[in-house]
Design goal:
380 residues, alpha/beta, Rossmann fold, 2 domains, seven-stranded mixed sheet, five-stranded parallel sheet
């Protein structure tokens, strides 16, 4: 099968954008073409500019972020007709029929494309939060044309799948140093910068920044990582590919660095005792992939409250308040780490399952077998 898999994502946060890159990489590793489409690429220009303004506002004010978590819905539907027409023409030319939808905004686009093309498409709705995010609010599929997978499960069904971002085994807890990753998700939202004084006593902090001005209160023992303020998820590189957020290790590296394999901070998370952040879906996935527990700060919206409740129920995360009541115990984090290792080992990898379901399995299996044989030959 030569058709590509279309990954329909959004740049409103990194919680659905970064997983789409993981999925693309998994497809390509199996000899399957995949292409990412970011919803905001197709917004009218004035609406696209407003996204950056809201991003800066929400980063600076927790109250504004809480009040404005419905903003993505207000952008929905304001698409550039010319860009959308060009997209449909390209999809029709290539016979595009297989889609993974990580943002609910794309449903009206896919409805229109199926009507215009006459194609019967296979659409997998991959829900990256335990609760209902703004883009999925009001989602309706009376004809059952869309299949839905909740990555973290539902109240009626336990978590069955994960997205494997890394084939390396998790670093054992006892081999990790006393360091903690601190961030506010892709937009740097939440109360994490306000909690620094309280967190300083824990050990070394690896802190994500969104402006060089935030280095003013930097402490020598900590590491600071600045995500390029001029970068947006809807930008492509010179090869026309979407990339992980360009990131700079402040005071150590002069340039922003990105990778085709993982976000810059992925390996930092692998070595940490915990991730201290608001409970976004992307943070939960990072926790599973790296077997690093999450210490939850205040959620921004209801779906994040649901995420936190789930992770506490399955023993993979803890609120900062509850951890503080435990005396900031590392033994608590160790237990959560072990639970995450078990989940990481037991959950099925979502992308291979879906490719097989869609009939891409023959080329995928051949690519994997060739890679395995090449590796065995190199070891001889």
């Amino acid at each position: 099968m030569s058709e590509a898999v279309a990954l329909l994502t959004s740049g409103m946060g990194l919680g659905v954008y970064v997983p789409s890159l993981f999925l693309r990489n998994q497809c390509e590793a199996r000899g399957v073409k995949a292409r990412i489409y970011v919803y905001e690429e197709f917004l009218e220009q004035d609406k696209k500019k407003n996204v950056k303004k809201y991003q800066e506002c929400f980063h600076q004010s927790y109250r504004a972020a809480v009040a404005g978590h419905k903003i993505p819905v207000r952008f929905a539907g304001h698409l550039d007709e010319g860009a959308l027409s060009g997209l449909f023409d390209m999809w029709k030319e290539h016979g595009q029929r297989h889609f993974i939808m990580l943002s609910g905004h794309w449903k009206s686009v896919l409805d229109a494309y199926q009507r215009e093309s006459g194609f019967v498409c296979s659409v997998e709705c991959l829900r990256m939060d335990y609760g209902v995010t703004p883009s999925w609010r009001g989602f309706c599929d009376p004809g059952s044309l869309y299949h839905t997978t909740w990555l973290f499960g539902t109240p009626e069904q336990a978590m069955e799948y994960t997205i494997q971002a890394d084939s390396r085994p998790a670093i054992p807890f006892e081999e990790r140093g006393p360091r903690y990753v601190v961030h506010g998700g892709g937009w740097g939202m939440g109360t994490y910068l306000d909690r620094m004084e309280e967190l300083e006593s824990l050990g070394q902090l690896d802190i994500t920044l969104h402006s060089e001005k935030e280095m003013e209160n930097a402490k020598a023992k900590n590491n600071y990582y600045l995500i390029d303020p001029n970068w947006s998820p809807w930008m492509r590189n010179d090869n026309g590919r979407h990339i992980f957020p360009p990131t700079r290790w402040m005071l150590h590296e002069p340039d922003y660095i990105t990778s085709e394999e993982h976000p810059y901070l992925y390996d930092v998370c692998r070595k940490a005792l915990a991730i201290i952040s608001k409970p976004g879906g992307g943070t939960l996935l990072d926790a599973i992939c790296t077997a690093t527990p999450v210490v939850f700060l205040e959620p921004i919206a209801e779906h994040e409250r649901c995420n936190a409740q789930l992770f506490e129920q399955i023993g993979c995360g803890i609120s900062l308040e509850n951890w503080k009541a435990e005396g900031f115990s590392k033994e608590v984090l160790h237990r959560l780490h072990e639970n995450l290792v078990n989940i990481r080992n037991q959950a099925k990898d979502f992308m291979p399952f879906l490719l097989k379901k869609w009939g891409f399995s023959s080329s995928a299996d051949a690519a994997i077998q060739n890679n395995r044989e090449a590796s065995e030959w190199a070891l001889k």
